Amino acid sequence: MHGEAMSGWLLVALCAATGAYCLLRMSSGAGEHRTGAGSEALMGFGMAAMALPAAAIAPPVWGWALYAAVFGVAALWALGHSRGSTHHLHHVIGSAAMVYMALVMAPGAGSSAHTGHTTGYGAGGIPLLTGALLLYYAGYVLRSGVRLMPVSVVARDPESGVAVAWGARPELALACRLSMGIGMIAMLLTL
Questions:
Q1: For 139-177, what is each residue's pLDDT tens digit?
Q2: Whether the Cβ atoms of residue 52 and residue 60 lie closer than 8 Å to each other
């Protein structure tokens, strides 16, 4: 996550903007729409915080444990609500991926306490798991992009003619999910 400063700041901006829009979506919906938007807002802001360039703002040592705890709770919550919902299963995978990245990025994650020997995986984490997450998010991004293409932009409700609120526009919600998927790919590539 701490490569080039400019790309890090662009990722921070993308994720923070996505999180902010998800908060807007959360305020304009109810029920399942509201909880999904809240989960996506947490993911967007969490990704923005984890992507901060270390040269600009060095995270505290305990920060990685906090990220892991917050996203661990989010993963368990999404798992409890995932019955029959593929979207909640996506939140489980996303939250678990954030826990994994927080643990891998924590200071000393590539070494064990036993005489300085390595744990078998370096700063990049477990290659097979990182690769599986990259494949999952690549497929998710492609699927979301294809679903976004045929969406027609409707600024008004076709039946009532009333303007649709910004938080209720399905094409913007899908674009946010697409951008967060791209952000996850960028974060996983830099492990």
A1: 999 999 888 776 555 555 556 666 555 556 677 888 888
A2: no
Q: How many CA atoms lie within 13 A of 154 on its CB side?
A: 14
Classified as helix, coil or strand, 111 is strand
Question: Mean pLDDT score of the chain, rounded to an integer?
Answer: 81
**Other Cβ atoms within 10 Å of 85 Cβ, number:** 13
Q: Which of 96, 127, 131, 93 is nearest to 110 (CA)?
A: 127
Cβ burial 121-144 (10 Å sphere, 16+ → b, else e): eeeebbeebbeebbebbeebbeeb
* 18 token code pair: 């996505």
Helix (H) or strand (E) holding 48: helix 32-50
As a whole number of angstroms, the distance between CA 55 and CA 62 comes to 18
How many other CB atoms sit within 10 Å of the CB of residue 78?
Answer: 23
176: closest CA among 22, 12, 11, 9? 22
Helix, strand counts (H, E) of the chain: 6, 0
Q: Pull the structure tokens for residue 100.
A: 């994994």
Amino acid in the structure at residue 22:
C
